[in-house]
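Hi W.,

Here's what went into the run:
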Amino acid sequence: MTIESVAADPSSPFINDSVRSRQPSHQQLAMSDLRDGFKKWTVWFMLAYQDVKLRYRRSVLGPFWITLSMAITVYSMGYLYGHLFHSNLQVYFPFLVAGMLAWSLISSQFSDLTEAFTQSESLVKQIKLPYSLYIHRVAMRNVIIFFHNIIVMLPILAIYHEVAKVNFYTLMLIPGLLVIYINSISYGLILGMLGARYRDIVQIVRSLIQVAFFLTPIMWNPVLLPEEDRFIVLLNPFYSFVELIRAPLLGAQPEWTTFGMVALITSMGLFLCMKMFSKYRARIVYWL
Amino acid sequence: MAIIDLHSVSVAFPIYNLNSRSFKKCFLRLATGGRVVEDANKHVMVNALNHISLRFEHGDRIGLIGHNGSGKSTLLRLLATIYEPTSGHMTINGNISPMLDLTPGMETELTGYENIVIRSRLQGFTLQEIKNQTEEIAELTGLGDYLSMPVRTYSSGMMVRLAFAISASIKPDILLIDEIFGAGDADFIEKARQKMISLLNQSSIVVLATHSDELITEFCNKALLLEAGQIKYFGDTKKALDIYHNKG
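Here's what came out:
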């Protein structure tokens, strides 16, 4: 194996100026980081799994606490707000639970990924691994937690089977999760770099996430808004990403506007990520 | 054939003080656009390595000497491709095996065995290879049943044994060592020494950072003396040590 650094030409052992001028560009290096990071999936999967296990290492219930605490939150919230809003529990309960599942995935991706590099600082400084690997580790950790949480949906599907159905649209969950994962990687790299460079970003992201939770229709149904104001919801990218998970969980098809918004945000993320990661990849370790 | 070639390589660390690191300063700078704030926001750069040019070839056993902060560890991390040069060109042909201090990265809630597996995975070994070498690593640590206990129960000496054994489980080609000799009790030091000698003999290039003159004279055929991030002397070990000590 040959490890080449910045100015290296992998094909040639001879070092001269003509070789030096053919060094890989920043963009190529960023691409190969992404490729290598993805290829090492066994490593980041192991680390992600380890993270989840470690968090509950000495507790009796272990990772089952994830499911349990989620269940306590959403069921009590559903009961309380259902009565406060005088909503039909039959409709409101499944809507809230599915929405909360989607939201907990998206919001934890946002806040955790901002700390992806700073939390792995000792590893980054000790072992040469692709930077994207640390992003995968955090993103996958949250996906694993999501699969623990999703169990909370089972009683809902049983009790409110007229509203929350299991059907063909349930399968849309898989592409939905995939799209969210891709966005987690592209935006995760951006946020991770920002979080390493500016330590305030973590706090900023955390408080913005709080606000976004109330602005996004999770606790409240968008039909509560007057007809002419509903476009506000459609302009909220969080809404589209929540819908991407919530609709399949309820056995419904996401609206077409959702796909449009998601496509726009995803391509924007990929573009920005390539630009920023190419430019600042080599600086990350110096920021830690 | 392993080759390391550095051509006028520099590594400069930006030092962010609390003020300039925060977003507030950047925002204020944008908002005020004044010169005063901008001056206050200028980063201090530390030139850890300054225009280093050198070439290591097959068979080179290089002892890295210099005072604290002279850039030894930075150079090792640069060669381990952890730091990328801020300027200049670096070419490394060969498989790099860094043996840096592992203790800070140890997962203390996990057992010794689990740490062995994780570390080996991170270093790029396959599951099969790890299975084969776990026994050997366990043997080298001499920790016995303690390996099934969480690392947080270890004494610092035991921690060092584990860290050394894990980091020594490499297929060396270009071997980078950052002073991890001389840890543990007498019995372990001897064991570690044997392991090191066998690793050194297998390697194509060795770069060894240490403060021990004996290690340099015993293992190295060349020495690189660093001072304030620059090469003070590169060549004969005896001469390098002389310069180093006269100076000190």
